[in-house]
Structure formats: structure tokens, C-alpha cells
Amino acid sequence: MLIEEMTVKQCHEFLVRMDFGRLGCVHDNQPYVVPIYFAYEPDRLYGFSTLGRKIEWMRSNPRVCVEVDEVIDTKSWNCVIASGRYEELPNASQYVSERQRAYKLLEKRFLWWQTAYAAEQPRHAHQPSLTILYCIHVAEMTGRRAEPDQFDAGRTHQKISG
Amino acid sequence: MLIEEMTVKQCHEFLVRMDFGRLGCVHDNQPYVVPIYFAYEPDRLYGFSTLGRKIEWMRSNPRVCVEVDEVIDTKSWNCVIASGRYEELPNASQYVSERQRAYKLLEKRFLWWQTAYAAEQPRHAHQPSLTILYCIHVAEMTGRRAEPDQFDAGRTHQKISG
Fold first, then answer.
1. Which residue in A102, A52, A1 sits closest to B112, CA to CA?
2. Least CB-CB distance to A119: which of B3, B30, B115?
3. For the complex shown, is ipTM > 0.90?
């Protein structure tokens, strides 16, 4: 297995292609990690959520970390870890253009959106649900990827050829 | 899609079956989320790592969060989020039995272990690498799972027969 650091360009390309990851936020030095759906363009990651612990914590401490991985098998995977700052995009005049941009990017995954939104329903069964749109401004990003090396390929060949 | 909270028993069974998740740790109110391999038995999650940011941060602040999910498709998934406390299991007499227990559980995924260990090598190419064994004592755990409901099943049938 050959492992290498990803370039910034490779990190961007990977995040643009992906739409599912995990977001970590913090309250009083206690971390909380949850799965999220997102849409990415360089240095901005857009997401949405109903009100809950994640949003409350990010409102009080905007420092977050997003981890996105793609594991094809044990010897072939990509992983990007991005640190950044949470900004809520409320339904107000100064956020119109950024909300439109977020919607445009997120619309491409509309089915995922519906699914994730539905997942929030049991918690809010007796109250109207409000979707919150947000942006993570990425400040730092690292990525690593692995692929089978010549020895792995040899072993695979041996296995296939019997 | 039908979404429901998982019982404690269901959370345990899910974590026993899984071996890959994401661990969140914190330093100075900044979260850091990384993929981990693990072995679980009720209320204890064993993992290993070489020395790096994750271990350094958990040594200074043992409060951690582990997220484990399994996404079969958009309408069928499981997700457990566990908060707990990091404890390192150094190679010392008072940790012998717990280290043996950890090794026994982790051995079942030995190939994963080797892979994850190899993944740490580029960072430590010029220094000897030291594998650190640790335990997360789980204090709080929640889980949710989704499965297709009768309407999804109807749509699937329609698609297949149509």
C-alpha cells in the first residue's frame, strides 16, 4: 500500500466530489461528532440542519472540524480533514446571495437533503421544524490517500490467477 | 423511511459488529476529527495509534466522542454517537490484563490494524514508530436507525416491476 499526502488541489477535488462527512463541534471542551450532508466549493462547505445540539454548540463556539473519507477497501482510500469556522446563513437581506449560492450547490443533492431532513423529524414531532442553512469557512485542510502498491498488485494477480 | 431511536442493547450490538468510526477530541476548544479502527465490548472501546496530534490532545483532555455509522443507502442506515473518556494503556504491570483484553479483541481485525499502522508511517519515516494502545470508557451513548417504510417499499416494487 502506497500512502501519500494530498495536495490542496486534490483535497478540493475530493470534497467537491463528496457529499457526506462528519462534523465535530465543541462545548465546554466536550467534543460532539455527527454525520452531515454537505456541498463544497473551495474553502466553503455548505450544510443544513434543524435546530439541535449541533447548531446550539456551533452558535456558542464556531470552531469546527469536518472529516470526509472514502474507503474503497483497506488499501485504497481517501481522507480529508478540514478545520474552519461556522457561520449561520439566516433568512435576512444581507445573506440572500450566499443563501442562493448554498441552495444552488445543495440542490444537486436534493434527495439527500430530503432524507437528512426527514431524519430530524422524530425529535421535533410536536413542533414546527426549521431548517437552518450554514457555511463552514475552511481555514486549514489536510488530506491523505492510499492505493495498492506493486506488492499488493502482485498478490491480487496471484489470487486472481489461482 | 422509518427512523427510530436505538435501544442501549441495539447500540451495543451495532458497535460490537463494527470496527471503523470517527473519533473527535479537543484542544483549547478546537475540535479534531479522525477516522479510527476499534474493537468494542459494552462500555469500552479499544483502539491504537502512533503518537501524533490525536494522542497528544487526548492526553491533555481525555473527553472524546466517537461516531460510528453504516450507510446502506439513503433510506437504510445506523448511527451511534458515544461520549467518553480516554485512558492510555501503557506497557506497565498494572495494565497487563487490560492490554491483553484489548489485544484479544483487536486481533480479530488484525489486517485492519496492520493497514492503519502502515498509514501512520510517512509521518514517522525518520524515527522509530511506537504504537499506543488506548481505551475509551463510554459514559453516554445514543443511536438512531432508518429503514424503508411501506411507501418506500411500494416505490421500489413499482420501479422493479415497471
1. A1
2. B3
3. no
